[in-house]
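[09:14] KT: can someone run the structure on this one? pasting the chain below
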Amino acid sequence: MTFISAVVLLFFVMDPLGNVPLFLSALKRVPAQRQRRVIAREMLIALGVLLLFLFLGGQMLRLLGLSEPALSAAGGIILMIIALRMVFPSREHSLHEDVVAEPFIVPLAIPYLAGPSALATVLLLMSREPARWPEWLGAVLLAWGLCVPIMLASTRLRDALGERGLTAIERLMGLILVTIAVEMLLGGISDWWLAHR
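[09:31] RB: done, structure tokens below
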């Protein structure tokens, strides 16, 4: 995987445009003048979690006895579930969470930004080619950096695009994520098959 493809993959997996309505829903009880501060804090927490998994994820895998193919397949399945909920939303399986106070770590940092699929992706990048860690670090930082202005401008995006526009973007991102999920799942199955032939 090239540096650019890693950045694009991480950007889509973090799904900032699809997260705009989720962020706004979670922040509805937070005063408007404080929302940008909360978003910035949660973005930094999400980055910290991603970097933690990037550098310590391989050791966690070895400790738990998990293989790369299993991680890839599991990441693909989780991403598929999330993507399908984005494409076919329902009240029973909504991604929106009821937040009664100011959100802290959950649900904005985890799982909206640093969710299972994003964490599985950084784990896979590092475990497959650990010698390229500077590239993977740069990819995480760049993808995260692309997400920051989108999330900070979430209120403006909602006003500009409206609910229908945001829903259309969320479903489009969901379709792209379905493709990425299938690729991750097939990659995991293929790797497992080759290892057990």
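[09:33] KT: thanks! The two ends are 24 Å apart (CA to CA).
[09:34] RB: yep, looked fine to me
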